Structure of Transposase:
Amino acid sequence: MRERALKEQGYQKGRNKKIAKTRARVEHIFGSFSQMGEKFIRTTGQRRANFAMTLKATCYDLHRLVYFGKSGIHAF
């Protein structure tokens, strides 16, 4: 029983290591949404929810672009 649990832990460590970079990037974006006061999507229907998320993502991108401009980093 213990041997199986250790094997599963090893599998989970490898899996987490593979997806950690993507997970960290996505969590950063959703954390930014929370800081902007947007924890939920209050829309009816999938299309409106997709549109709301697209607007939020665009605002996030613009916010990052302004930050890069102020810090002297060339984004493109």
In short: The radius of gyration is 19 Å. DSSP finds two helices and no strands in the chain. The chain has two domains: 1-38, 40-76.
